[in-house]
Predict the structure.
Amino acid sequence: MSDIKTGFTGELEDKTTMKAQVKRATSAVQREAGAVAATAQDHRAATGTALLLVGAVAFLAGYVLGAGDQRDSWHDRSWF
């Protein structure tokens, strides 16, 4: 796939400007987002499983981080 675009004079488009680079990056992100959405629609069970696994890993990471913050002394855990 080629990104070469020629005008009437046959000169190449200037891709060194910030505007051209942002336009190319935006186009690439839109194409990738469309491909991800199409794949998610075609494989719904796999998408659901992947989301469930990501959620479980995030929950376990939060639990482990929270459990490491507990105090060890009985005096610190009591109210009196």
Q: What stands out?
A: Helices lie at 18-42, 44-67, 74-77. The chain is about 65% helix and 0% strand. Residues 35 and 49 are 19 Å apart (CA to CA).
